[in-house]
């Protein structure tokens, strides 16, 4: 049983790290730079960690830039204040994401630029063959754990989270981060900081801080606000895997 919990936690946080580090802070904001081989490494790691719920760095970057430009207005691709509930928000976001991904939606030039792209992984990650294969792999692991590792049947309810890991992370951040918590800054939107130690989403729930300082690598602003991804970025910078961009 403990092995199943460990696998779930590892999948949750590895996928979440790739989302906040590679998709959000690198692809969308270019807070740091990295060599092409390291970019390909993190691109592949994002595919492997998100699996059946793989999100395109290009489409993610475009939607996130739109979110900042139109935060909590009707043009925001994922505001909780223009949808009935979290499920309708996720569905509308999916539709916009797919239109951007398939290049069927016209994109303003300020959003359609300066993002990483690897066509092979893009096509692979978005294919139903890949998504189905990952889903079957997760399911096979739980079946084997149920048969051989004395796993309780209730753990099968974790499977949908594995299947939709990337969108679930996004839904938590976009819903909670613009609905619940406190504000350090008046950003002319409804962004909130939901936690003071964001262990759950690795800093992503400091939405109010992030909307005030969108290019700051530390999503925490007050001394008591802890962004767990920030020290990882600092370590990777010291190891020369990435280079934090100097503020101009």
TrEMBL record:
Residues 6-233 form the Fatty acid desaturase domain. The keyword NADP does not apply. GO terms for cellular component: membrane. GO terms for molecular function: oxidoreductase activity, acting on paired donors, with oxidation of a pair of donors resulting in the reduction of molecular oxygen to two molecules of water. Its main location: membrane. It comes from the Bacteria. It is found in: Membrane. The chain crosses the membrane at residues 6-26, 128-149, 155-175. InterPro entries: Acyl-CoA_DS, FA_desaturase_dom. It is a multi-pass membrane protein. Keywords: Fatty acid biosynthesis, Fatty acid metabolism, Iron, Lipid biosynthesis, Lipid metabolism, Membrane, Oxidoreductase, Transmembrane, Transmembrane helix. GO terms for biological process: fatty acid biosynthetic process. Coiled coil: none annotated. Pfam families: FA_desaturase. The keyword Cytoplasm does not apply. PANTHER family: ACYL-COA DESATURASE, DESATURASE 1, ISOFORM A-RELATED. Belongs to the fatty acid desaturase type 2 family. This is Acyl-CoA desaturase.
